[in-house]
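User: Predict the complex with adenosine-5'-diphosphate.
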Amino acid sequence: MRVFKFGGASIKDAESIQNVASIVRRFPNDSLVIVISASGKTTNAMELVLKAYWERDLEEMQAALNKVKAHHKALTDGLFPNLEHPVYNEIHDILIDLEWILEEEPQDEFDYLYDQIVGTGELLSTTIVSAYFNEVNLKTTWLDVRDCIKTDNTYRDANINWEETEGAIKEKVPTLLTQGLVITQGFLGGTTENFTTTLGREGSDFTAAIFSYCLDAQDMSIWKDVPGVLTADPRLFDHPTLVEQLSYSEAIEMTYYGAQVIHPKTIRPLQNKTIPLHVKSFIDPEGKGTVIGAFEDKNYPPMIVVKKEQAILRMVSKDFFFVDEVKFSKLFETLAKHRIKVNMTQNTALAFSVCVNDDAQKIEALIADLEMNYEVKKIEGLKLVTIRHTSEALFDRIIDARKIYLEEKIGSNIQLVMNKEEIL
Ligand code: ADP
Ligand code: ASP
Ligand code: MG
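Assistant: Here is the predicted structure with adenosine-5'-diphosphate placed in the model:
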């Protein structure tokens, strides 16, 4: 059996969903589990609904909700000319569940509400795509992923209970596959009390990897709007080239530092069972794409990864003691407590600098926590540029006359923190 994942861009409108069906038809003899994200930019749109709900801006909330509704209405209208089709009721019911939550004043924690509200995007998209597949004779079962991917209750960044998840997936999915295709939601999980959780933004790639692992898939394919993994993000650089093969460890390094094309958590479950990962184009499904697998690392071209929305925190010890291993461990403990992701570190005798994802709320709480012992200075508006397998020429070109806040060079791998406006 094989696992496919289609992201938001691949199902952004009715025509795109028809294209997904035509891709799936190319695999008539395969058992397929198909993981699907929210359509287009629905997750961002749902975040706006939530924000307005949380801030009690009811007018704004209604406007944002109307946009989500209109987007999905365009999908159903485009795919189901028969207005009596049951999908219209199904979508209506999902939206009613959402509106019930939105009618009450917020009583719970933000992260919990985030998952209950924002997760609606995947429920809507999978309902539409699986109904459409059945309509065009691709026999499909809609599977509620919340009964399969069991997590703890760390809302917005839920941890997988692998034992329960593997048990549930093995119990449910193989039987369903004997009846046809299985479509399920990316990004979502469920707690033991059946509350919805999410696995972190862009988490649907990871969902597909969890299914691949639990079902010992022959391979996994993620269908993207790019020809495969490229030497850089084509939105930021002209003419990057396709990398046809990558080892698991090279892929982990790239995604860890922010190559958005694959979610960083995706690789490990696949590597554990030596399941190949294909990154393919939904625009050109015949194209070669990239395969990530148990390859030896050899002669990679220079690859550039840019991680946006970064900040540097420079912490200077107030008591004039060295930043030693005891201080380090306390600092990291505090960073972990606030769930702040550290992307780079540097220290002198009295100061410790970290480059972190600039999550303003979390950083504010961290600074309040550290203020007793450290003077903390925050520099924001930065990006982290990682160049792997660099050449001297590329290095010189990127450094050029730019202001570099932090720099690290290990062999042919370089990391630089610079202003977000710098054009590379
Ligand atoms: P999905 O729709 O599956 O969520 P994403 O939008 O998250 O897909 O990922 C695809 C995007 O990743 C591409 O459109 C591209 O702009 C970006 N990207 C960043 N780095 C790379 C890279 N090295 N190779 C290819 N695409 C990249
Ligand atoms: N829909 C979610 C997001 O946009 C998950 C995903 O697409 O991978 O973050
Ligand atoms: Mg994505």
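The pocket of aspartic acid (ligand 2) is lined by residues 7-8, 37-38, 43, 121, 186-187, 201-204 (CB under 6 Å).
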